Amino acid sequence: MRKAVITGVGPDGGLGAQLCKRFATEGLHVLVAGRTKTSVDAVADSIRRAGGRPTAVVADATDERQVVSLFDQAGDDIDVATYSRQRHVRPHPRDDGAISRA
Question: Does the pTM exceed 0.90?
């Protein structure tokens, strides 16, 4: 079976969760990995209810040992591996959203 390892999975509506769901709809066994058990379980449950085959794994992508353990669990036959990192930054109060080019 084809397999995807998605790390950095957070809330169900986030990019990592959506990547997991997308690969699951394509028939891949998805390893849903993130730091929070509640989040990875919720995403895995959603995939399972839709007929997919997820494996929820609590792993912090900033911890090398946890990443090695995740990939050991995934095995050698990985088709897709991605790290979804989102950074939430508050804009400066005077930022109008325009991109300035120097």
Answer: no
What angle do the packed helices 37-49 and 15-25 form, to 10 degrees?
30
- Angstrom distance (rounded) from CA 8 to CA 60: 8
Options 1.20.140.150, 3.40.50.2300, 3.30.43.10, 3.40.50.720; CATH for 3-83 is 3.40.50.720
23 residue type, one letter: F
Task: Summarize pLDDT for 18-76 with one digit per residue, the tens.
Answer: 999 999 999 999 999 999 999 999 999 999 999 999 999 999 988 999 999 999 999 98
CA distance 69 to 50: 27
Residue 40 contacts residue 56 (beta carbons within 8 Å): yes
